[in-house]
Amino acid sequence: MSLTIPRTTVTSWRELPGSVWLLVGARAVNRLGAFTLPFLTVTLVAEQGASVAQAGYLMAAFGLATIPSRLAGGRLSDRWGPRATIVVGLCATAAAQLLVAGSRTLPQAAVAVVLLGLAFEVYEPPSQSLVADATAPEDRPIAFGLLFAALSAAGMGAGLLAALLAGFDLRWLFVADAVSCLLCAAVIARWLPVARPSSASVAGPARPWRDRRLLLLLGLGTLLATLYLQVTITLPLTVTGRGLPPSVIGLLLTASAVTVVIAQPLAAARALRRLDDPVAMAVAFVVLGIGLAGTGLATSIPAYVASTVVWSIGDLLLMGRAYTLVAAIAPEGGSGAYLAVYGTSWGFAAILAPVLGTQLLASTGPLVTWLLMAMASLGLAAAYLAARGPLGVPRGPDLGRD
């Protein structure tokens, strides 16, 4: 399914279609309340009496459940349309959050956690599909970058709300998250334009797992996500291991979110828009690599902040282009399924990243670990350039034009 919205070339994020802005605003409200995941393990131990090992198993079960959740969201998006799928996914997530809050025994909590995982990613593929379908191919980096920036900015507020509510009762975190999901669903249901089936979606479903181009992007995307997740895994250990207070971690994450918001105009810069997606991603990986190397070399708070700003700019450029490239190879009416399959890269990375990052840090130390990650970033830059041929990417900015 696709939105029947006229698509014109825009010169900045301010000119994006109203449906994209509506989605971004609604998802920002949802993200503002989505602060429960870091507290889920604590809640299982403190409120449900789970051991640390049991909580770890349940979190692993949650992570595994998010993979079919995302795939289901992509398939439903192409069949039902983005609006219906987003609303269903948000309502299901809210129901699961309330089940977690209302659980009185560990078995009840275990069921609720798995159900939460099955619902948690349903609305992601249709959100991304809507952005892809409502914008012209050359405008998608701007639109995806805006969505990424809005979620990052809302994440800062989410941390503050979590700090306030956690002082009362951890269960209230899940209630507040459920309320934010329902508010987002209400906005989407009321004001998002209705999609109608395209001729391609009526003819038959997309088969993303048979597309070698998508599988290539899935492999590269898993490496990208594994590198990206080191920020939440290895960075805190590096900062505290070098004798800095834990509050510095919050400062760096805030600096990253602020950078992503302020640096939005870069996504619309004419020089970058003239580059095709693999070349633009290669440039972004170089920027990311410089920032990662700077993190390894940093010994003071200003140095950490400076390197954070650099790798955050790389993140912004990468997130906009990665999803744009996937949407470009998707058949008409199949963007939801393609984006869902690509999104499983984050599930795979969630398994690889903790082991890889902690083992590297323990065996080589922070300096070598971050320099190796910087080298990996440069390697990914070369890999995306080499993938231009297999992906069939033409030179210039016309990638993905209908």
TrEMBL record:
Positions of the Major facilitator superfamily (MFS) profile domain: 1-391
InterPro entries with a match to the protein in the record: MFS (IPR011701), MFS_dom (IPR020846), MFS_trans_sf (IPR036259), MFS_Transporters (IPR050171)
Subcellular localization(s) per the UniProt record: Cell membrane
Membrane topology field: Multi-pass membrane protein
Transmembrane segments: 144-166, 172-193, 214-235, 247-267, 279-303, 309-330, 337-361, 367-387
Keywords in alphabetical order: Cell membrane, Membrane, Transmembrane, Transmembrane helix, Transport
Keyword Ribosomal protein: no
GO MF term list: transmembrane transporter activity
GO CC field: plasma membrane
Domain of life: Bacteria
Record-linked PANTHER family: MULTIDRUG RESISTANCE PROTEIN MDTH, RESISTANCE PROTEIN MDTM, PUTATIVE-RELATED-RELATED
Protein name in UniProt: MFS transporter
Organism: Nocardioides islandensis
Taxonomic lineage: Bacteria, Bacillati, Actinomycetota, Actinomycetes, Propionibacteriales
